[in-house]
Amino acid sequence: MNKPQKFLIAFLTTMVVVFGAVVIRVWALKPPVGFKVAAIPAGEYDPAVWGKSYPLQYKSFQKNLESAPSPTGYGGSVKEQKADRQPEIYTNFKGNPFSKDYTEDRGHPYSLDDLRESKRIGPTSKGACITCKTPQLEAFYNEMGWSYANKPLEELLNRSQHPVSCANCHDPETMNLRVINPAFIEAMARRGYDVTKASQEEMRSFVCGQCHAEYYFAPGTSQVIFPWDKGVTPQEMYQYYAAKPHDFGQDFFQPDSQVPVLKAQHPDFEEWQNGTHGKFGVSCADCHMPYMRENGRKYSSHWMTSPLRTIEDSCFPCHTENRDQLYNQVKATQDNVWQLQHTAGLLVARGHTAIAKAAAMPGVNREELDKSRELLRRAQWYWDFLAASNSMGFHNSVQGLNTLGQSIDLSNQSIDAANRAAGVNTL
To answer: Is the pTM of this model over 0.85?
Structure first.
């Protein structure tokens, strides 16, 4: 066999493999054929009622009631305090309820229970906190507009019977995917996206992004706002916050250092957009809600869990690696991110201590002290952007490691500035 023939055979073999992978992916991702839509009354928020018409989806949704550690040891659905593993939380969030109660997220069926049981809420908590906890948000917004956000949280909790479930993401009449969070709709509109015109594949991420995202409450009105006007990277969002939008300057002041801290809130949608999967058109649902088959019937799993629990259905439509290779790749990525995240968090805590000591010194250089606080504010935001997300950097490991590296550098700069402010030789 001559070289041209060998080349031709190798080329054709490669094309067969690629074509086969494409066919498998299309087959796996194509929605069920002949899917019969049931009539669910508008305003029906009980998932059990929806489950009578969609038993396979409901059966898989019920698996979200299970609590288990993550396959890699990061995250998971066991309700345990994050500070047990990251004691720096006590310092970095001192002066904020997150220093008292910061548990791992459980599944969607627990959204209301976890809110009611949280030590972070109290008599003064606002209705904005209900935004991503129940499909009854739709009714509250239709009834009150954004004024629901400034209502007492207790009042809305008393009216909420059902946790995050079917109606958060599906139109009851057509079963089409939909977004009910007005904050997401408005944020996307400011970026030039009309959510009502989104494709089916886009909606398979938008329904997740309406809640798994960073936000803040506007002072005075408690309106929920997503800080995406300048972009969705941690650096772009920090620039947005630096302009004090809607007179929002910080979530709280750390009492020892008096740093005006920004508290990140699970920016998973933002990470995904700039990550490998997001850039190549792989939706959230492709991995976390894969298509499955039972008794010859195809359906989308509603067990929103780690893809490592459903590798064959979540990963194999695109990947040719075996289970161990895929697991080891994810584990290695998360191990690397965790190492830098923990290092960054500890350095932020050291920064708060250094600033507090410098501020107590007579004749402290106020200019250097202010510089130190600004540096640490950025350092903490970059650290928390990763610490608050659910993927331990896997959604976008390149951005995550870079952001944590910047956090470490900024903390060191902040500590040096604090020492200069106090007249301490840092050489």
So the answer is: yes
